[in-house]
Structure to design on (191 residues):
């Protein structure tokens, strides 16, 4: 039974991922909220994390958002702060626009709840949440369950990172995500 539930979730996550890649945000927003991920991988900035930032930078360059909000706290594996690693990558990539950091969160749920007051203080009303394609189904459910999507006009942007395109990371993310969804549901976060 658990295998059937796991497989059903995995299929839904995959379908949403493909749909989000095929249909980027249609409207401009005040900010791109870029969700955190492991900061470093094999001694270098994690391409899953920097790829998310690159997707936010593309939105800013296209005039779709006026600022970036980077959300992610201390990476337990290497002690770096995800939001700071994202900030460094954005600045190294030439981004000179407004940038806000939320440097304490340690989960997707906390990315949303701890970014909420940062967004409100900046006067943000419309936000595009940026993450890996396979992560967006859960992010959307958490945004709805927490009321985040009622406080803000929310759209979602799938970051077509190298992690998404490489088979190893696809399977790592795709295999991990249904377990994270089951965990979030069991703890009452998705209700």
């Amino acid at each position: 039974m658990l295998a059937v539930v796991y497989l059903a979730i995995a299929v839904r996550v995959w379908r949403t991922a493909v749909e989000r890649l095929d249909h980027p945000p249609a409207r401009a927003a005040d900010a791109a909220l870029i969700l955190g991920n492991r900061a470093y991988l094999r001694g270098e900035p994690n391409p899953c994390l920097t790829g998310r930032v690159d997707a936010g930078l593309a939105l800013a360059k296209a005039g779709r958002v006026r600022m970036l909000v980077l959300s992610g706290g201390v990476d337990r594996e290497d002690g770096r702060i995800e939001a700071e690693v994202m900030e460094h990558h954005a600045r190294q990539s030439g981004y000179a626009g407004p940038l806000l950091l939320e440097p304490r969160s340690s989960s997707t749920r906390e990315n949303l709840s701890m970014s909420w007051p940062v967004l409100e203080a900046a006067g943000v009303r419309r936000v595009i949440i940026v993450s890996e394609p396979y992560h967006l189904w859960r992010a959307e459910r958490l945004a709805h369950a927490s009321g985040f999507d009622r406080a803000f006009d929310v759209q979602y942007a799938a970051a077509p990172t190298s992690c998404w395109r490489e088979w190893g990371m696809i399977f790592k993310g795709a295999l991990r995500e249904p377990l994270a969804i089951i965990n979030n549901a069991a703890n009452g976060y998705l209700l």
Notes: The chain has one domain: 7-186. The domain at 7-186 is CATH 3.40.50.620 (Rossmann fold).
